[in-house]
Write a sequence for this structure.
């Protein structure tokens, strides 16, 4: 159901209320990214004060990933069925309460529980927020502009989280947990007044309870297995059996979805080449970046002896470039199309990662590190909003939440899987009690893997560069079976 707020947008004028709606949704996305980046720097202080082991500290990060990545599919479909506004606001309120709890607890298990709840709530706010945008702003230049601003807020939140965590942790790690709470409350109050009311999906064929259970269980087990694999061993019986169970659950899930009258995921969406490229591109994009950030953070702090704040400032040019480009990306997408921008962005990313392989134990920041950061920042500015636009174009309003949840699942699962692989490669080549040069040499294979992942993303994106007349056909199957040919003709051929 298209929001009444679409009318002024479709005429090219954004009313103050429409701007307010977008800002509320951007605030939630900003909080998700901020929360992910802030906690990493605070881990040593948390472990020291609460007396937590390294393995327990890992679950402060992994608990969030588990809740977020495991429940995104359910979150997206729930938004479609129960109303996007309602789901978004309830989940945002839960996020605020979990943030408050996380800053006040004195127990490791309670802190991990609060992180899981925050991830769970983000699994509902992220797809609901994205689908509110795609159903409020009509497909084309106006939606492209809104999505470029929305995705830029995610990159800005991630970059600011790195800097803020360095500053706040100096006072207390609890501030890093508490900071999102008041921001979430302000966004919640504003959302109650500004967000358009959305009706529940009409004429749906009941609730796909078996699909919801199977889909959620398979994603939770997949993320849990990948997160634990570096610790227990990739070839251990536990890991192999877990992957086998994931495969079994996913197989049953697909069988259930094919027979369900109201599936959690309509499998027809995945017959679209455009949609498949968007999902695989999201996995390669985020997976390569989080692997890169992990290794570079270790390199800067462990080998170069830089402080957390110094490290955050080293990453800042990439985030600043994304933030400064926010108003321009939408018009670039309108002119060149998403597929060209995704391919160009991945090419920049490959070059940026490859250039970083030149680092040594005494790097000149401006000559060695800064070029990589600028190239990666430019890549993020092009790829992330383009992937969001490509995944949601040509999809009917009543399935926007489903597709948004699917895209966010690809992002999170890709991040979890590729980070685990990069970590395993880097640690496998690190001898015990090694000197700084030997440790740096052990990081290089991990950086090569990061570069290869981005190169695979580039190859996937290049398969979509084909004649304009064929591009339109690739998105028709993403529409509802009840859609007419006339309805699918409105899909821009560049996307």
């Amino acid at each position: 159901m298209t929001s009444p707020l679409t009318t002024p947008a479709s005429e090219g004028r954004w009313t103050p209320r429409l701007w307010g709606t977008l800002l509320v949704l951007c605030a939630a996305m900003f909080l998700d990214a901020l929360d992910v980046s802030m906690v990493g720097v605070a881990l040593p202080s948390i472990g020291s004060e609460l007396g937590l082991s390294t393995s327990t500290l890992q679950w402060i990060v992994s608990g969030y990933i588990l809740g977020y990545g495991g429940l995104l599919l359910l979150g997206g479909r729930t938004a479609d069925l129960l109303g996007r506004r309602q789901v978004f606001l309830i989940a945002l309120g839960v996020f605020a309460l979990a943030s408050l709890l996380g800053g006040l607890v004195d127990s490791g298990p309670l802190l991990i529980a609060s992180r899981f709840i925050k991830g769970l709530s983000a699994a509902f706010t992220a797809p609901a927020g994205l689908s509110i945008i795609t159903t409020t702003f009509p497909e084309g230049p106006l939606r492209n502009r809104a999505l470029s601003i929305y995705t830029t807020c995610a990159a800005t939140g991630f970059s600011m989280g790195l800097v803020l965590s360095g500053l706040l942790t100096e006072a207390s790690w609890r501030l890093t947990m508490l900071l999102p709470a008041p921001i979430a409350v302000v966004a919640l109050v504003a959302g109650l007044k500004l967000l358009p009311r959305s009706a529940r999906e009409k004429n749906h064929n009941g609730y796909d309870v078996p699909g919801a259970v199977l889909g959620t269980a398979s994603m939770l087990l997949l993320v849990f297995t990948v997160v634990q694999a570096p610790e227990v061993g990739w070839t251990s019986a536990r890991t192999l059996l877990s992957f086998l169970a994931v495969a079994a659950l996913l197989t049953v899930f697909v069988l259930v979805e094919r027979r369900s009258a109201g599936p959690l995921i309509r499998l027809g969406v995945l017959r679209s080449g455009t949609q498949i490229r968007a999902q695989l591109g999201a996995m390669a994009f985020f997976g390569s970046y989080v692997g890169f950030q992990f290794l570079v953070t270790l390199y800067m702090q462990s080998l170069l002896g830089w402080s957390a704040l110094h490290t955050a400032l080293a990453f800042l040019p990439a985030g600043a470039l994304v933030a400064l480009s926010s108003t321009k990306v939408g018009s670039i997408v309108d002119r060149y199309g998403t597929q060209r921008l995704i391919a160009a962005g991945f090419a920049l990313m490959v070059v940026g990662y490859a250039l970083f392989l030149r680092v040594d134990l005494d790097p000149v920041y401006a000559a060695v590190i800064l070029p990589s950061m600028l190239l990666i920042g430019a890549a993020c500015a092009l790829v992330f909003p383009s992937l969001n636009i490509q995944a949601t174009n040509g999809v009917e309003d009543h399935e926007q939440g489903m597709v948004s949840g699917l895209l966010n699942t690809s992002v999170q699962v890709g991040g979890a899987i590729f980070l685990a692989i990069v970590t395993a490669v880097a640690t496998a080549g690190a001898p015990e009690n090694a000197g700084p040069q030997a440790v740096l040499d052990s990081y290089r294979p991990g950086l090569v893997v990061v570069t290869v992942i981005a190169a695979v993303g580039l190859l996937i994106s290049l398969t979509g560069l084909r004649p304009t007349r064929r591009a339109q056909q690739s998105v028709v199957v993403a529409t509802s079976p009840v859609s007419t040919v006339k309805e699918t003709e409105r899909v821009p051929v560049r996307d």
